[in-house]
Amino acid sequence: MAAIGIDYGTSNSEVVYFDGQQHHFIKLDPSIDASNKIRSSVFVYYKDELPLPHASAIEAKVSQIQRAISAQIDKAKESYYDAQDPREERVFGDKIDDLRAEFHNRPALQRRAIQMLLKYMTVQDLSLHQLVETGEFAFGEDGFKRYLKTPEKGRLIYSPKNFLGANLVAGQQSAFIGMIAKQLEFFRLSAEKQLQKKVDTAVIGRPVKFHGTRGEEGNSQAIDIMRKAAEKAGFTTVEFLEEPIAAAYKIERKLSKPTNVLVVDIGGGTTDVCCIKLSPEKLTNLNRQQDALSVTGARLGGMECDKNLIIKSIAPTMGQDLRMQGGLPVPPTYFSDMCAVDDIPKLNHFFSDDYGLEIAQTMSIVKEPKLLNRLLIVQEEKLSARLVNSSRLAKELLSSKNEITLPLHYIEPDYDVDLTIDDLNRSMLPWLSRVKRLVSECLEKSSEPPELLFITGGMSLSPIVRQQLQEVMLPDLPVIEGDAFNSVCEGLAIQAAKL
Ligand SMILES: Nc1ncnc2c1ncn2[C@@H]1O[C@H](COP(=O)(O)OP(=O)(O)OP(=O)(O)O)[C@@H](O)[C@H]1O
Ligand SMILES: [Mg+2]
To answer: Using CA atoms, how far apart are residues 132 and 138, in angstroms rounded to an integer?
Structure first.
């Protein structure tokens, strides 16, 4: 039996096995050969027909049809009593009998109800729970490509992890358990195949605070969903470890003497910070909570930068600053709602017909409706996730280039947006000052100062992030270099090997 580390990230996930000496990275995405991580988004879809409508919807439709038949019976009865001769009486009498038979023939009524419901049903009408129960799953690049090619065939959950701390109703909770169980099962089976041994134990990373506004209640809901999903996925032993502490365990193997290290993990969904006492002598100790001097975390990840870049630099090309008649600006909420890929109710509201109608009405009272038409296309064609993904790519490219042209041709032919490093940096400043505040908070809570700084997570590849943390905020703290993407999961695997 083997125990693995699972970094279930907001943007990317990873699975690592540690054999006591070496880390073994499990290949998770068959469509990217060289990669040991996989996009965390999931596309749940239907190859052919949509599933049968829900029983309660069928029953409601049957009742509606029956009400229509009753009205026809009442009308036929009136005609029967008004009949002028026995022949006419017989005709209406027969009609009443036929209608009554129709009224009571439940199988036929149900078939008719299903036909009527299917005629107008789209994937968007299905609840998340129904979708997870009846749809097919595509993970990683395969899922994202399917979504790009046939968005109408399914629904893309851009970052399931982002929803775990949110206010979920009962059906949604079980939908997320089902969805994540499929992902974790896929991870477990991939590991078993590549390691050639049974895998029954996992140490799963957790952010200090899950994405959401519900504090401790949200955190325990998130852990509960992850634990149930892991059990459903076939794991018999599951433990959770805070992500920055996991990254610290990886760093510990590089140290030659006891050292206090400040770990800053800036991922796609959250920033997690810890100050921890590390020591090569403690490598094999199982429980290290007493060594964590302080831990802080917040919903401050790269996705927020992607959205901020849209609001600051892309939305102005979609009509954000236009004035309506009377001089008022176009409602700015149009653009924040457009980006709400991590807020199901908000995004559903943005995709509703009424919302589209409102944008169309606003278009009729602005000078340059052509710009707002781009927003309308994102609304009508449900392109929010695709736009946020484009913005993410732009942000990543601007880590190594001073300017880029971002093609948004899926919104309008020849629609390109020029973006510079200054645009990106400006859009990131408020976010960066919140990240710095979180780091300060961790330092203030720690009873001992750090001696080394380790910055990890995908956002640590952003030059402005490194510059602000290393040069501006902590210029006297020596930096230990490490991997931006693998450290958390390697640390989780180290912990798993101790179980
Ligand atoms: N070269 C790059 N420059 C800037 N940002 C990058 C770069 N590469 C990746 N990122 C960003 O890093 C983030 C993903 O980081 P990471 O894979 O560590 O997150 P995660 O572990 O999935 O999320 P979390 O830990 O918050 O749940 C994304 O926002 C991504 O755009
Ligand atoms: Mg992470």
So the answer is: 12
Looking at the whole model, is its pTM more than 0.85? yes
Within 8 A by CB and 6+ apart from 318, the residues are 335, 371, 372, 374, 375, 378
Q: How many residues does the chain have?
A: 499
Question: In the structure encoding, which two tokens stand for residue 45, read together?
Answer: 């879809």
Tens place of pLDDT per residue across the chain (499 aa): 999 999 999 999 999 999 999 999 999 998 887 788 999 999 999 988 777 888 888 999 999 999 999 999 999 999 999 988 999 899 999 999 999 999 999 999 999 998 888 877 777 777 888 889 899 999 999 999 999 898 888 999 989 999 998 888 878 899 999 999 999 999 999 999 999 999 999 999 999 888 777 788 889 999 999 999 999 999 999 999 999 999 999 999 999 999 999 999 999 999 999 999 999 998 888 888 889 999 999 999 999 999 999 999 999 999 999 999 888 999 999 999 999 998 888 998 999 999 999 999 999 999 889 999 999 999 999 999 999 999 999 999 999 999 999 999 999 999 999 999 999 999 999 999 999 999 999 999 999 999 999 999 999 999 999 999 999 999 999 999 889 999 999 999 999 999 9
Amino acid at 186: F
- What is the C-alpha separation between 150 and 371, in angstroms, rounded? 26
CATH class label, 2-48+127-254+492-498: alpha beta
459 CB near ligand 1 (under 6 Å): yes
The β-bridge partners of 279 are none
CB 185 within 8 A of CB 139: no
Nearest CA to ligand 1 atom 3: 396
- Of 147, 296, 298, the closest CA to residue 211 belongs to 298
- Centre of ligand 2 from the C-alpha of residue 207, in Å: 8
Q: Could you tell me the residue ranges of all domains in the chain?
A: 2-48+127-254+492-498, 55-121, 303-395
Position in ligand 1 atom list of the atom nearest CA 13: 22
Q: 383 C-alpha to center of ligand 2: Å?
A: 26
Q: Ligand 1 pocket, 397 CB below 6 A?
A: no
User: Between the CA of residue 491 and those of 246, 250, 275, 347, 472, what are the distances in Å?
Assistant: 4, 5, 15, 36, 29
